[in-house]
Amino acid sequence: MIAFRNFFVTMTCALFLCVAAARAPALACEVIVYWDANFAGQSLHTDADLSYVGDHWNDQISSIRVISGFWEFYWDAGYRGEVLRLGPGQYPFVGNHWNDQISSFRCSR
Ligand SMILES: [Ca+2]
């Protein structure tokens, strides 16, 4: 009986960890992009991959907060062109080279 209970507890814990692990990737990608440097101007908070940021945001992003996950920012739409990879952190300015250039971005899972 004790052996059975231990087995049950073990399996329950294993199952829980599996569920937690399966959910982790979806929960671990969150980013905020900003129109201007120093997190100023309009902002876009998302956990979604964007193959095109849209006409309004295209070539406008100047600063980024990566809340979680590792994100790839691309020069062109469709995840093409040069890529800038950023992990969790604050990026008050993407640099002169990348300023107002990003057209698509996605979380690298
Ligand atoms: Ca800008």
Q: How are the SSEs placed, and which strands pair?
A:
Blueprint: H1 2-27, E1 30-36, E2 40-46, E3 63-68, E4 71-76, E5 80-86, E6 89-91, E7 104-107
Antiparallel strand pairs: 1-2, 1-3, 3-6, 4-5, 4-7
The structure holds calcium ion.
Calcium ion binds near residues 35, 60 and 100.
Structure description:
By secondary structure, the chain is of the alpha+beta class. It has one domain: Gamma-B Crystallin, domain 1 (Sandwich). The model is unreliable at 7-20 (pLDDT under 50). It has 1 helix and 7 strands; from the N terminus they run H-E-E-E-E-E-E-E. Strand 4 (71-76) and strand 5 (80-86) form a beta hairpin. The strands form 2 sheets. Strands 2-1-3-6 form a 4-stranded antiparallel beta sheet, with no helix packed on it. The protein has a 3-stranded antiparallel beta sheet with strand order 5-4-7, with no helix packed on it. The termini are far apart.
Brief sketch in words of this structure:
The chain is of the alpha+beta class and 109 residues long. The chain contains one helix and seven strands; from the N terminus they run H-E-E-E-E-E-E-E. It is globular and about 25 Å long.
Structure characteristics:
four-stranded antiparallel β-sheet; binds calcium ion; three-stranded antiparallel β-sheet; Gamma-B Crystallin, domain 1; 1 helix; 109 residues; 7 strands; alpha+beta; globular
Give the biggest sheet: 4 strands, antiparallel
Note the beta-strand portion. Answer: 35-45%
Give me the CATH superfamily.
Crystallins
H/E element order: HEEEEEEE
